[in-house]
Write a structure and sequence with these properties.
The protein has about 180 residues and is an all-alpha fold. The chain has 8 helices and no strands.
C-alpha cells in the first residue's frame, strides 16, 4: 500500500510537471524515478549475489518447521506451487515423516482407490522440490521486473528530454521578448 502511494505521488509529480511545463517538478520526477530504479537494481543485485544463502535458509526452515503449527503453510505452499518437499518427496522419508496429501497423493487416492493405489500415487505425486519451484518463480519475477526497469529507464530518458525542450523553449521565449 505504501509502495502504491509513493508511486502515485511520483506519477502525479511527473504528470503535473509535464502539463504545466514545470522544469522543477519534472526534475523532481526524474530524481524520484532514478532513486526507485537504483533501489530496484541494488535489491536485484543483492538477491542475485546472496541467492545461495536465501535458498539455504529456506531449506533449513522448511526442513525444521514441519510441525502442526506450520503444516497448513507448507501444505498450501506445496499445493499452490505443485511441489513436494524441499528437494523432492524423498525429503519426507529423511525426516521420518509421511508424505502429506498436499504432494498430490490425496487426489490420487480418491480418484482410484484399490490394489493399484501405489502406482496411481506415484503417477500423481509431485516430484519437483519446493526450492526448485520457488527458484523458478523468483526467476520469472526477475524477468518481469527487468522489463519494468527498462521501461522506467525510458521514462527517465523522456523526462530529461522534456526538461531540455522546456528549457530551450523558455530560452527562445526570453530571447524573443528582448527584441520587442
Amino acid at each position: 500500500m505504501v509502495t502504491g502511494g509513493v508511486s502515485m505521488i511520483i506519477g502525479f509529480l511527473g504528470c503535473c510537471g509535464a502539463i504545466k511545463e514545470n522544469v522543477c517538478q519534472l526534475s523532481m520526477y526524474f530524481i524520484s524515478v532514478f532513486v526507485v530504479v537504483a533501489i530496484e537494481i541494488g535489491g536485484g543485485i543483492w538477491i542475485f549475489l546472496n541467492q545461495g544463502e536465501v535458498i539455504d535458509t529456506l531449506q533449513e526452515r522448511m526442513g525444521a518447521t514441519y510441525t502442526e503449527d506450520f503444516k497448513l503453510f507448507i501444505d498450501l505452499l506445496q499445493e499452490k506451487l505443485a511441489c513436494c518437499g524441499i528437494k523432492g518427496p524423498e525429503d519426507w522419508a529423511k525426516n521420518n515423516l509421511t508424505i502429506p496429501d498436499s504432494c498430490g497423493i490425496g487426489a490420487a487416492t480418491i480418484v482410484a482407490p484399490g490394489p493399484r493405489d501405489d502406482d496411481v500415487q506415484k503417477q500423481h505425486l509431485e516430484t519437483t522440490g519446493c526450492v526448485d519451484r520457488i527458484y523458478q518463480y523468483i526467476t520469472t519475477i526477475f524477468i518481469i521486473v527487468g522489463g519494468i526497469i527498462c521501461l522506467q529507464i525510458l521514462v527517465i530518458v523522456f523526462s530529461v528530454i522534456l526538461c531540455r525542450a522546456i528549457r530551450e523553449a523558455d530560452d527562445y521565449d526570453d530571447d524573443d521578448r528582448s527584441f520587442a
